[in-house]
């Protein structure tokens, strides 16, 4: 490196001036530092010792930005030292995955792969000119969203250090720095050894945004008068129609400063503008000191409240005018009050219900959160289009742009401390994180506390620690007393975590899930038994987590800092298992089941008395932790094609019709009966509301309809309307019916499907040999060209290790070491003649529950290439085994159907099983029964005698396994 020139000769000064003209934007109060910076990687961490701040760095980089965005850093290898736990080490050992461990074909399944990776020290440097007009002013260097620890020099003067994942790094420039050309040097260190918040924390982990190195927000040199307003905090009092204003005024002069501050607020996003009177408050700041003032600003009778329906934002300005100069500072706030009353959360005294999403900082294009308000406006608009009104930020805090957009949208936010103190650190055990969490919370509340959308706060996610409960109880008590503008929870946790005392509300995983592995689907139950034991608001932690199959068409959209190498691996494995052509079918079939499960779980939550809300995990996919495809949107917040926002809003909205349906399959000698209730958390009561309903078949023929007398539907709860009773006697053939319930003259409607079968079925004529084993007689029938139906339920050996529930994979099988269930629903062709008398779609629907749930699957690893079963369970994408629930084949001269689903037990009650068996029988005795594929009898027999050759192996019993990042104890 070359020694840095000191700009002491005219030519050098001219060069520096030209650089500044080209790369800086000078305003009255600030100089933008965005643009081209000089750069150097310091992987050996020798820059401090060698005083690189005195040398001219030779590489270049564009800021704001990250090293990865600029193509800086290391290539990805099998030895890359990741920031994040790797729970499934089988990738490193499975022989079948060896090809993906080769350097020229490396594809890791844990998360999206960054184009470059770097953890360590990097240096950023640029020339500036401090204008003559800045003489006598307080100069500050403002660097928004640095990652993570900064050290700053101007020329050879050390300016300071920064260490925050939640707030801007702000540096006061020493008065000794004169006007003219200078050099700013920033040393950035993104290693966790000295700042261990937990390697899986979404503020730093490779599972989501990645542990990037850089500066991605505003970069400014700011000029302030010698006496200036450093901070304004606004504390609304809605009932009294006023706000308490607290100001911090810094006097950098050598003399006392005396004067007054003028304070006024004006609404800035409302059709009807409201302006307060000007309030003046006297101030006196001693020389070289900070004065803290407090005043009350009357808002008045025209006060505009902030909530999700009327998000009125005020812009408050405070100005001082002194001999030392004038200064004006503005902040946004809203007149809103968040409180709790028993099990309810109130905003401005009105009960709300949180329909929330968990945001994990999944931004694959940049690898970090958007820094522009416009980007967050789009994100919140998508969330609102899906009926949501709330967002939790899992172990990270978004930038100010998110709060500004949420203020405008009326969206309730829960940022968290930047820590998941688990898997490498713990809380309350005198480690680094204990004090750092206090420091970060202080910075977070100061930076974003005025924003009305900042309604809730939790310390972080799922902490470890022997003394975590005591620590968090003290933590919450401290911050509630210091800043009562929001409500506080201790941490967002699952059921195995302890209860925390003294919190305003709790986030826990009890009221979630569908118990369909033991009980048939219904809409009667709710989660009251989980919530009744608590007298504070109970918000469901990370509800959902239902998986869909990967959408391989998505891969080409990752053109930023990450590549979907994980998807590439899964796609190649699917192709190697002879199912590459079925990828779209698997996506759509699994996606429809995923959406169905979300509908049922959300409605169950909405039916729960005294529930405070839920936080989904998630509306969008989670790109890490083994790849968790749990969203109906992908990680880029785009629809996948199997459910629209409009369809989603039918069951997730401020107003939702609900039912209490006891079951979904019937015979035509029965009546369908269900109570109807309306969940309503809109802005006001619905008066004279008329609720109507229709029952139609798939051809849109009206079976029956009705309407209930006009009623009042009060906001803030559920209103029972009446009951529907529909005779099914006119249904003479197996049918799927759709019940639609709506509130007339509104957009609010919801629908459910039921299946009706004939109570009596005719005898099936034809010569079918029924068996539950392929014995000599069955072999002889096939040899003679006959027809065989094999009931294989409970007989399967090859595939016995694959556990199937009706519900799909939870989160993903890799993160939980192949914990069941292993499948993602079923795929079939609805128009196949085998289903002529069994109305179905191409995917799992509720009539399939008694056929699919806990049924064995057959592993077709030895079947001929191209073979496709009639009903095909979709395997976890980490294995991609070709599976069957019902298959047909030619065997010798004969033909056979094999079903590992139970189609013959308890058919009086299991009417769907009876109907499917009838449909298959009719098919087998018809000319249409001509299976396309031939299978050797020995291969068929092998399903019931020989275990699978291809099986998943854990390779370790540790949790997390030995391949995670080394334990950090600081």
What does this structure look like?
There is one protein chain. With 970 residues, this protein is α+β, with helices and mostly antiparallel strands. It is 16% helix and 30% strand. Strand 47, helix 11 and strand 48 (787-791) form a beta-alpha-beta unit.
Quick summary:
It is built from 14 helices and 54 strands.
Helix segment count?
14
Principal-axis shape: globular
Spatial sequence of strands, sheet with the most strands? 6-4-9-15-12-13
Structural class: alpha+beta
Beta-strand portion reads 25-35%
**Low-confidence segments, ≥5 residues, pLDDT <50?**
1-28, 959-970
The helix content, as a percent range, equals 10-25%
Span from first to last CA?
35 Å
Q: Name the average pLDDT.
A: 94
Q: How many β-strand stretches? A: 54
Cα radius of gyration in angstroms: 32 Å
Largest sheet: 6 strands, antiparallel
Keywords:
six-stranded antiparallel sheet, 970 residues, alpha+beta, disordered C terminus, six-stranded parallel sheet, disordered N terminus
Topology:
Elements: E1 2-3, H1 10-23, E2 25-26, E3 30-32, E4 35-42, H2 47-50, E5 55-56, E6 59-63, E7 65-66, E8 113-114, E9 121-130, E10 138-143, E11 146-147, E12 149-154, E13 157-163, E14 169-172, E15 180-189, E16 214-215, E17 219-224, E18 227-237, E19 242-251, E20 257-267, E21 279-285, E22 290-298, E23 314-322, E24 325-333, E25 338-341, E26 344-347, E27 350-352, E28 354-359, H3 373-385, E29 390-393, H4 400-409, E30 412-414, H5 432-448, E31 456-457, H6 468-482, E32 487-488, E33 506-508, H7 528-531, E34 538-544, E35 562-563, H8 565-576, H9 583-607, E36 613-617, H10 645-649, E37 655-659, E38 665-667, E39 671-680, E40 686-689, E41 691-697, E42 702-707, E43 711-713, E44 717-727, E45 735-743, E46 749-757, E47 769-771, H11 776-783, E48 787-791, E49 823-827, H12 849-852, E50 858-859, E51 872-875, E52 883-884, E53 886-891, E54 894-899, H13 911-924, H14 937-942
Parallel strand pairs: 28-29, 28-36, 29-30, 31-32, 33-34, 34-36, 38-46, 47-48, 48-54
Antiparallel strand pairs: 1-5, 2-3, 3-17, 4-6, 4-9, 7-16, 8-35, 9-15, 10-14, 10-17, 11-16, 12-13, 12-15, 18-19, 19-22, 20-21, 20-23, 23-24, 25-26, 26-27, 37-39, 39-44, 40-43, 41-42, 41-45, 45-46, 49-51, 50-52, 53-54
Helix pairs in contact: 3-4
């Amino acid at each position: 490196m070359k020694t840095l020139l000191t700009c002491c000769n005219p030519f050098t000064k001219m060069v520096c001036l030209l650089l500044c003209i080209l790369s800086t934007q000078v305003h009255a109060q600030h100089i933008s530092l965005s643009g081209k910076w000089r750069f150097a990687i310091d992987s050996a961490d020798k820059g401090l010792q060698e005083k690189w701040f005195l040398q001219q760095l030779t590489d270049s980089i564009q800021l704001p930005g990250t090293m990865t965005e600029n193509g800086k850093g290391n290539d990805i290898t099998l030895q890359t030292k990741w920031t994040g736990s790797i729970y499934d080490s089988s990738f490193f050992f499975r022989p079948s995955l060896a090809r993906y461990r080769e350097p020229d074909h490396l594809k890791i399944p844990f998360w999206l792969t960054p184009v470059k990776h770097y953890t360590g020290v990097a240096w950023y440097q640029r020339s500036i000119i401090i204008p003559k007009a800045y003489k006598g002013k307080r100069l500050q260097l403002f660097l928004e969203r640095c990652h993570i620890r900064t050290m700053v020099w101007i020329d050879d003067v050390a300016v300071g250090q920064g260490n925050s994942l939640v707030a801007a790094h702000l540096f006061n420039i020493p008065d000794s720095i004169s006007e003219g050309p200078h050099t700013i040097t920033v040393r950035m260190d993104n290693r966790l050894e000295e700042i261990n918040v937990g390697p899986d924390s979404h503020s730093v982990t490779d599972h989501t945004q990645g542990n990037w190195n850089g500066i991605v927000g505003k970069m400014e040199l700011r000029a302030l008068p010698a006496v200036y307003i450093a901070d304004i905090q606004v504390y609304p009092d809605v009932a009294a129609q006023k706000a308490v204003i607290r100001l911090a005024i810094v006097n950098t002069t050598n003399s006392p400063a005396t004067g007054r501050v003028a304070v006024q607020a004006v609404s800035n996003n409302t059709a009807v503008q409201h302006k307060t009177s000007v309030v003046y408050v006297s101030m006196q700041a001693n020389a070289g000191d900070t004065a803290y003032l407090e005043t009350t600003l009357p808002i008045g009778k025209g006060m505009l409240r902030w909530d999700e329906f009327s998000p009125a934002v005020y812009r408050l300005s405070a100005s001082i005018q002194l001999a030392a100069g004038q200064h004006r500072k503005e902040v946004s706030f809203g007149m809103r009050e968040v409180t709790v009353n028993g099990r309810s959360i109130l905003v401005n005294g009105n009960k709300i219900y949180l329909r929330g999403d968990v945001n994990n900082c999944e931004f694959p294009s940049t690898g970090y959160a958007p820094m522009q308000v416009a980007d967050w406006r789009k994100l919140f608009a998508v969330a609102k289009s899906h009926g949501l009104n709330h967002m939790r930020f899992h172990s990270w805090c978004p930038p100010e742009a998110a709060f500004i957009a949420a203020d405008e949208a009326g969206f309730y936010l829960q940022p968290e401390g930047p820590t998941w103190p688990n898997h490498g650190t713990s809380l309350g055990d005198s480690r680094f994180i204990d004090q750092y969490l206090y420091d970060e919370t202080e910075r977070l509340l100061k930076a974003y506390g005025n924003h009305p959308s900042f309604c809730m706060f939790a310390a972080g996610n799922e902490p470890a620690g022997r003394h975590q409960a005591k620590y968090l109880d003290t933590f919450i008590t401290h911050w509630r007393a210091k800043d009562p503008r929001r409500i506080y929870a201790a941490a967002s946790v699952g059921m195995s975590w302890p209860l925390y005392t003294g919190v305003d509300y709790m986030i826990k995983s009890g009221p979630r899930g569908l118990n369909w592995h033991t009980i048939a689907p219904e809409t009667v139950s709710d989660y009251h038994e989980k919530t009744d034991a608590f007298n504070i608001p109970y918000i469901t932690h990370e509800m959902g987590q239902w998986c869909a199959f990967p959408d391989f068409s998505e891969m080409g959209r990752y053109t930023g800092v990450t590549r979907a190498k994980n998807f590439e691996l899964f796609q190649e494995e699917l192709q190697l298992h002879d199912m590459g052509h079925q990828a779209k079918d698997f996506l759509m079939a699994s996606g429809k089941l995923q959406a169905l499960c979300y509908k049922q779980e959300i409605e169950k939550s909405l039916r729960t008395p005294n529930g405070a809300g839920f936080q989904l995990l998630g509306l969008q996919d989670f790109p890490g932790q083994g790849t968790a495809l749990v969203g109906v949107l992908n990680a880029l917040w785009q629809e996948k094609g199997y459910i629209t926002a409009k369809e989603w809003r039918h069951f997730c909205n401020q107003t939702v019709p609900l039912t209490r349906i006891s079951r979904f399959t019937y015979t035509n000698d029965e009546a369908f009966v269900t109570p109807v209730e309306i969940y309503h958390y809109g802005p006001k009561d619905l008066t004279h509301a008329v609720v109507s309903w229709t029952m139609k078949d798939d051809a849109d023929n009206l079976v029956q309809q009705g309407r209930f007398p006009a009623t009042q539907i009060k906001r803030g709860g559920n209103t029972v309307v009446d009951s529907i009773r529909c005779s099914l006697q006119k249904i003479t053939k197996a049918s799927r019916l759709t019940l639609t319930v709506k509130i007339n003259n509104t957009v609010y409607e919801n629908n459910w499907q039921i299946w009706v079968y004939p109570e009596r079925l005719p005898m099936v004529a034809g010569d079918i040999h029924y068996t539950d084993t392929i014995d000599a007689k069955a072999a002889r029938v096939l040899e003679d060209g006959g027809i065989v139906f094999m009931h294989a339920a409970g007989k399967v050996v090859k595939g016995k290790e694959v556990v199937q529930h009706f519900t799909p994979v939870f989160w993903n099988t890799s993160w939980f070491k192949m914990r069941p269930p292993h499948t993602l629903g079923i795929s079939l062709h609805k128009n196949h003649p085998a289903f002529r008398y069994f109305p179905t779609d191409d995917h799992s629907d509720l009539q399939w529950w008694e056929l699919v749930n806990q049924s064995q699957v057959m592993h077709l690893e030895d079947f001929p290439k191209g073979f496709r079963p009639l009903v095909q369970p979709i395997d976890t994408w980490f294995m991609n085994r070709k599976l069957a629930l019902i298959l047909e084949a030619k065997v010798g001269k004969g033909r056979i159907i094999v079903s590992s689903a139970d189609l013959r037990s308890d058919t009086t009650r299991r009417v769907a099983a009876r109907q499917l068996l009838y449909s298959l029988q009719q098919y087998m005795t018809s000319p249409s029964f001509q299976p396309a594929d031939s299978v050797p009898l020995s291969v068929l027999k092998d399903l019931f005698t020989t275990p699978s050759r291809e099986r998943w192996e854990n390779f370790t019993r540790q949790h997390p396994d030995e391949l995670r990042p080394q334990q950090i104890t600081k």
